């Protein structure tokens, strides 16, 4: 099936579908349009329920794709789906558009519920917005493996909030609920924002292993807050809730990573015997605030965290931890220039019923955080065990040594005795000379006059004008022409008598009223004669008297 149109609107429970229920493969659905809108429980489907493989669903919209809402009772989500319910593999789902908006419980899905593998979901867009309980997923609930979910957004990916009843988080998901392995989830963009309880997750809830999660955001990754009830934390997560392993790797590469207000990055295993995987982050700056968390916690095999960054800040009960319940605590490796922890923020690799893990930190400076042999209300770096100190793990801290005196010159140790200088009377006479022969020397031009009685004059050298031959005569001709032109006569100013604003006193005592207030103080001379103790003396001879 192929549809080409300027605008396609599918609404009110309508369905556009290519499907097969037998041995053959399902047909493909291809839509080429400027704008595609699917809303109010309407769907575009490529489905197989037999032994054949599902068809492909391809959307190419030059302007936008909008998937909005559900039907009236909320039982059917609007959306685009490629599904396989039999032995066949699910078809791939591909969307190319300038803006993709999925909101109010709508879905984009490639899934399998039978023996076949799920299809891949690939989104190429400028901006992706998923909000209010909407989801984009590649999942398997049967024996087959789930497909891959790949998002390539040139500008931004925004994942916001949860459903109106707070039961369904918005987000991007690869998931297995059966024996099959979940597919990989990869996001490439400039800016990734996950907030208000939205989630990016590659997870397993049964026997199958979770997939890897990779984020490459050239500018920033921001994980902020929880949903209204605090049930879902905004997160990037590799999660195992069954016997399968969590994804082997949760990798983030970005310019700036911000995790705040209860949000987190998590590789987590909740079942004994399952592995939490590894969190690896490479960022110019890592900032955790208000219960922000990076964790690889496990009830089974240990998880690991590796951080590379110029500066890492943990504020207000933020945590980096690889704690374990029934096994050895995980490993934490940090390589940074600056590591700061304040407000009961901790870095821990603790264990409850096993040995403590290990923490290795290489930094140029560590502020606030300290190694401790047990958790405290302060800012701790620990690798402890509840079994006792003999089961504690290892903490290695390597701080680069910088010589603070390098490049400094040694100053003389003899200081000037200021009190002795101030005790001398610099204007005192000794042997008929001021201060026993003290002197003040003026060098160069300008500055003080030759004697104290002379006025200050401008001693700058004056350079006479020079003329070019023939230039003087041309100037005289031009001046003569200008003189012959009668200048405009100014209009005589009409004098107005106004109220006096001040007065001055003439030398003969006459009071003269003035139009402006006089704010100054008459001064007889510009430079008063000042000598030591108001005395008179001769600078050249160094002699004089004082009163």
Task: Give an account of the 3D structure.
The chain is mainly β and 547 residues long. Helix content is 4%, strand content 44%. It contains two helices and 35 strands. The protein has helices at 418-423, 471-484; strands spanning 2-10, 15-20, 29-39, 43-48, 57-68, 79-84, 93-103, 107-112, 121-131, 135-140, 149-160, 171-176, 185-195, 199-204, 213-224, 235-240, 249-260, 264-269, 278-289, 293-295, 304-315, 319-321, 331-342, 346-348, 358-363, 365-367, 370-371, 380-382, 394-399, 429-430, 433-434, 502-505, 511-514, 536-538, 543-545. Mean pLDDT is 82; it is low at 523-547.
Instruction: Name the shape in a single word.
Output: flat
How many structural domains in the coordinates?
Answer: 1
Q: Report the mean per-residue pLDDT as an integer.
A: 82
- The assigned structural class equals mainly beta
Give the fraction of residues assigned to helices. Answer: under 10%
% residues in beta strands: 35-45%
The total of beta strands comes to 35
Radius of gyration: 42 Å
Extract low-pLDDT stretches. 523-547
Largest sheet: 15 strands, parallel
Distance between the termini: 116 Å
Number of helices: 2
- Quaternary structure type: single chain
């Amino acid at each position: 099936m192929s549809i080409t149109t300027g605008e396609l609107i599918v609404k009110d429970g309508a369905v556009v579908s290519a499907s097969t229920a037998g041995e053959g493969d399902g047909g493909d659905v291809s839509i080429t349009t400027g704008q595609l809108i699917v809303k109010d429980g309407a769907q575009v489907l490529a489905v197989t329920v037999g032994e054949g493989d599902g068809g492909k669903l391809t959307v190419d919209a030059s302007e936008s794709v909008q998937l909005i809402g559900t039907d009236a009772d909320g039982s059917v989500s609007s959306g685009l789906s490629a599904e396989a319910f039999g032995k066949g593999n699910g078809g791939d789902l591909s969307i190319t558009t300038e803006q993709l908006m999925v909101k109010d419980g709508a879905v984009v899905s490639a899934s399998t519920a039978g023996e076949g593998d799920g299809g891949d979901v690939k989104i190429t867009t400028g901006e992706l917005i998923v909000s209010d309980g909407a989801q984009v997923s590649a999942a398997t609930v049967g024996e087959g493996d789930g497909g891959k979910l790949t998002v390539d957004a040139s500008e931004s990916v925004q994942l916001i909030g949860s459903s109106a009843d707070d039961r369904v988080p918005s987000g991007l998901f690869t998931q297995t609920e059966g024996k099959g392995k979940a597919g990989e989830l990869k996001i490439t963009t400039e800016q990734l924002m996950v907030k208000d309880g939205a989630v990016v997750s590659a997870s397993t809830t049964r026997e199958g292993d979770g997939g890897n999660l990779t984020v490459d955001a050239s500018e920033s990754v921001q994980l902020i807050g929880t949903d209204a009830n605090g049930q879902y934390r905004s997160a990037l997560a590799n999660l195992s809730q069954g016997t399968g392993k969590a994804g082997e790797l949760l990798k983030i590469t970005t310019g700036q990573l911000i995790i705040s207000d209860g949000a987190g990055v998590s590789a987590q295993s909740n079942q004994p015997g399952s592995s939490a995987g590894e969190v690896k982050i490479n960022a110019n700056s890592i900032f955790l605030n208000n219960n922000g968390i990076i964790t690889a916690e496990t009830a089974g095999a240990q998880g690991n965290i590796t951080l590379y960054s110029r500066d890492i800040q943990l504020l207000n009960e933020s945590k980096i931890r690889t704690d374990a319940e029934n096994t050895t605590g995980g490993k934490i490796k940090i390589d940074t220039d600056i590591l700061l922890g304040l407000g009961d923020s901790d870095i821990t690799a603790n264990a409850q019923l096993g040995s403590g893990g290990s923490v290795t930190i290489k930094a140029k400076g560590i502020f606030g955080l300290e190694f401790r042999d047990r958790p405290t209300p302060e800012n701790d770096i620990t690798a402890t065990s509840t079994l006792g100190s003999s089961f504690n793990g290892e903490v290695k801290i390597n701080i680069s040594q910088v010589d603070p005196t390098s490049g400094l010159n040694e100053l003389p140790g003899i200081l000037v005795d200021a009190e002795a200088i101030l005790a001398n009377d610099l204007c005192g006479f000794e042997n008929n000379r001021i201060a026993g022969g003290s002197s003040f020397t003026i060098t160069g031009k300008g500055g003080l006059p030759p004697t104290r009685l002379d006025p200050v004059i401008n001693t700058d050298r004056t350079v006479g004008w020079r003329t070019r031959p023939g230039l003087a005569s041309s100037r005289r001709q031009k001046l003569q022409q200008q003189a012959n032109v009668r200048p405009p006569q100014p209009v005589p100013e009409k004098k107005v008598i106004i109220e006096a604003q001040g007065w001055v006193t003439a030398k003969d005592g006459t009071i003269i009223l003035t139009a402006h207030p006089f704010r100054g103080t008459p001064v007889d001379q510009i430079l008063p004669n000042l000598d030591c103790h108001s005395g008179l003396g001769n600078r050249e001879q160094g002699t004089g008297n004082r009163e």
